[in-house]
Design brief:
Elements (H helix, E strand, L loop, with lengths): L1 E8 L4 E10 L2 E9 L17 E6 L8 H15 L14 H10 L26 E6 L7
Antiparallel strand pairs: 1-2, 1-5, 2-3, 3-4
């Protein structure tokens, strides 16, 4: 398994970071973080930089620590690259997101509106133009 980080650049600065797990050449999991504060209807005041936007693992690779490895990589990368933000769990999350947040650790904020959100759409990893691909393949990052 190879773990990598993809940075989505906006007009003036990066807007999103996606940590991806690859098995052979197939994407098997991703963890998306906001790289800048982001408005959100479900969260009063919006999402701060570093907020988890989405985490997904392909069936067959779940419960094997892949998403946990992505969280660890995100935290380690934020430290080593001296990012202005640290990964943080969102106040807007699904029930599965709640379980993930509690499993990987870190501060888990109260739910926005006091309830879970429904997962209504799946992000297609090939739908956006991704630039600034940074490959992070180390023994510590392997699952």
């Amino acid at each position: 398994m190879v773990l990598t980080a993809e940075i989505l650049d906006g007009p003036q600065h990066p807007v999103e970071v996606r940590f991806v797990a690859l098995a052979d050449v197939a994407r098997i999991a991703h963890l998306r973080l906001s790289a800048a504060a982001k408005p959100a209807l479900a969260v009063p005041g919006g999402l701060p930089a570093g907020s988890v936007l989405d985490v997904f693992t392909v069936e067959g690779f779940r419960r094997l620590g892949v998403a946990r490895s992505l969280w660890s990589l995100a935290c380690d990368t934020a430290d080593t690259e001296h990012w202005a933000f640290q990964p943080r769990h969102s106040a807007s999350r699904t029930l599965e997101g709640e379980r993930y947040a509690k499993a990987v650790g870190g501060f888990v904020p109260p739910l926005a509106g006091g309830r879970y959100v429904e997962c209504s759409d799946v992000v297609d990893p090939s739908s956006a133009l991704w630039r600034g691909r940074l490959h992070l393949d180390s023994e510590a990052a392997r699952g």
